[in-house]
């Protein structure tokens, strides 16, 4: 059941602290300050990594590429439907990682089967034990989010992000005590967002807008994409997410006083440049919502602030995403949408 929540989606948003604890359980050894994922023990350090995924899982994959590149492993994320083993050379030492909540997505399975066919090592990062992806890949790492009923992926996205933090750390042996400590503190920080988010009021203010834009850099760029996808799916409103620098290369033409812009600015994600982008939209009269861990410079330009507790630079965007989930949820709720089963969408997409 929904445990007293109006929708599974809201319940699942609130389950995120638990989902993260489950994902980390017995994998992060705090005393030794290390990350040890059993299922990865036999995966050797790859020369490069190719992610294949769709939708929200693709956004997690984009996040994963940055984690790996920061640790010296070249990594690329492909939309599974665009992945073509004949066009994308797969070296002997490449690891192809399918990120798929259900483990059944046809596009992702097609890409993984192609990778298997040419002899690549494949790894499924999935939520479903015994799924096609788990069975057909050489290795499987479970994100352990528990069943997700809402069509819109929420807790499984967070769990994928955390699984990829562990994957990148474990594959390279690089994590650092700060990351381990920050992972331990993450569920509590997300809980504090769930307990005191300004998202509902912001949703009330902006629910009838012409469009919603989301911008961010670095680890926040995939979060901007995910914020927009969630908004589209459950509110049916026009929403777009961009790497903040792209705004001026075209989308800025759409910005008016009826298009709120959500600016993600958290530690380490180049606030100065993003604030420059915020000023550009402010000049055009766009309402600005800063999603930030206390950056006063962006708050100065914002009509509203969604607070992100301070965390590790790679993890603050994970928390920021929760704020965006709540905004989409409350906009959809106030518009009376079919939140758990949006029109035209299915939980598991088994056609190509
Ligand atoms: C968005 C959403 C979809 C899925 C996509 C991939 O909320 O749920 O975009 O993320 O269909 O599904 P999986 O992860 O099962 O491969």
From TrEMBL:
This is Glutamine--fructose-6-phosphate aminotransferase [isomerizing]. Homodimer. One of its GO terms (biological process) is UDP-N-acetylglucosamine metabolic process. Its main location: cytoplasm. The lineage of its organism: Archaea, Methanobacteriati, Methanobacteriota, Stenosarchaea group, Halobacteria. Keywords: Aminotransferase, Cytoplasm, Glutamine amidotransferase, Repeat, Transferase. Transmembrane segments: none annotated. The chain holds residues 248 to 599 of 599 of the full protein. Its EC number is 2.6.1.16.
């Amino acid at each position: 059941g929904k445990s007293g929540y109006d929708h599974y989606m809201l319940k699942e948003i609130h389950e995120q602290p638990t989902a993260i604890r489950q994902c980390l359980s017995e994998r992060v050894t705090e005393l030794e300050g290390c990350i040890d994922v059993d299922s990865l023990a036999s995966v050797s350090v790859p020369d490069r990594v190719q992610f294949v995924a769709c939708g929200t899982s693709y956004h997690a994959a984009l996040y994963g590429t940055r984690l790996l590149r920061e640790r010296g492993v070249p990594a690329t994320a492909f939309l599974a439907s665009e992945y073509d083993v004949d066009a994308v050379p797969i070296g002997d030492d490449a690891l192809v990682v399918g990120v798929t909540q259900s483990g059944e997505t046809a596009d992702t399975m097609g890409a993984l089967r192609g990778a298997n066919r040419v002899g690549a090592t494949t790894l499924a990062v999935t939520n479903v034990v015994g799924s096609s992806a788990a069975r057909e890949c050489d290795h499987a790492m479970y994100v352990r989010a528990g069943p997700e009923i809402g069509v819109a992926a929420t807790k499984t996205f967070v769990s994928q992000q955390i699984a990829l933090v562990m994957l990148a750390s474990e594959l390279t042996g690089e994590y650092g005590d700060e990351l381990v400590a920050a992972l331990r503190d993450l569920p509590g920080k997300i809980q504090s967002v769930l307990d005191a988010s300004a998202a509902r009021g912001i949703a009330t203010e902006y629910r009838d807008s012409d469009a919603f834009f989301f911008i961010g850099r670095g680890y926040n760029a995939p979060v901007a994409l995910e914020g927009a996808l969630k908004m589209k799916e459950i509110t049916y409103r026009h929403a777009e997410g961009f790497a903040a620098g792209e705004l001026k290369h075209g989308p800025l033409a759409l910005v008016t006083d009826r298009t709120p812009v959500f600016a993600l600015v958290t530690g380490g994600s180049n606030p100065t440049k993003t604030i420059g982008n915020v000023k550009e939209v402010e000049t055009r009269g766009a309402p600005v919502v800063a999603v930030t861990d206390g950056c006063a410079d962006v708050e100065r330009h914002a009509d509203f602030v969604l607070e992100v507790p301070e965390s590790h630079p790679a993890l603050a965007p994970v928390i920021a995403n929760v704020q965006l989930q709540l905004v989409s949820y409350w906009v959809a709720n106030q518009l009376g949408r079919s939140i758990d089963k949006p029109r035209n969408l299915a939980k598991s997409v088994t056609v190509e």
